[in-house]
Amino acid sequence: MKNIKKTLLATLALALAASVFAKNARFDGASYSISLDYNDTVLPGDPVFVRMRFENVKAKKKAFAPAAKAEIKIEDKSIGTSDFYSISKKGSHEYMTGLPISSWAKSGEYNIVVSYTTGDEGQKSFDLPLTVGEKTFDSGTITLNQTMNNISKNTSPEKVAQSKKLNDIINSINPESVYNLKKFIAPVKSTRRTTSFAERIIYKYPSGKESTTTHAGIDFGVPTGTEIVAPAAGKVVMAENRIATGWTIIVEHLPGLYTMYYHMSQLKVKEGQNVQQGDLLGLSGSTGFSTGTHLHWEVRLNSVIVNPDYFIEKDWSFNEL
User: Fold this and answer.
1) Which pLDDT value is given to residue 321?
2) b or e along 9-33 (b: 16 or more beta carbons within 10 Å of the residue's beta carbon)?
3) What is the model's pTM?
4) What is the phi/psi pair of residue 76, to 5°?
């Protein structure tokens, strides 16, 4: 297993792309082989997923216990790390991890540094090249009515406690929470969108003051009572009424990967319930901090907002390769 970094990079240069979207890298060593798939080109706001397989393992089963993490760097500056988690079928050694790219990320050449140990030898690492392209996001202005203004200015202990509970959930990364590796479907049938992902929004307050924020998800302009379904299998980890977001649902799909549904009129699931793709979650509404009836759909990876469309449009877990 000498010179793993140089050997893998040489392999990368020769590897054929599995598709325009995914790159494959491979390293063949004395006691095992490593095969990886990952998305090597992204835009700001996209996630990066790396799927890694240890193959042709010659070590004893108990001695071979891989553990790995990935770190994204640009010019030796770290912008995030994430541990790999097991997605193995019986008799295999397969792992995956996801890292978010901020919607404010600069375009350029980055590196994904994968560090790992197999349990019977010291830590090794190698680099995977990553390109972040340029993207321009929409912008808009929202004038707050008095009700919305009151919600935004609310600093009550109840609202603070609700914010802490939500943040504790989306900051949680449970390596056992592997529910879904399939492409998502949209949570509603309507394609009408009133606010886009990562739109730069200026809020105008009744006082005349302004503030700027980044819209965390996609707003679908749908009538009250529109059915909202689970885009993928997962576990309901929040189902309650909140001051800021009204009737709210959060579903956990993978370690650190959550989808969020705001401003609903009715909930049709309970906290702790497992759901399958297409299951009814609830009905749309205009509860909480809302300008009108719609569904706010948000995706968080390691607590960072990422583009929901990515999970619908891309083979993000490389199941189709």
Assistant:
1) 58
2) bebbeeeeeeeebbbbbbbeeeebe
3) 0.92
4) 65, 10
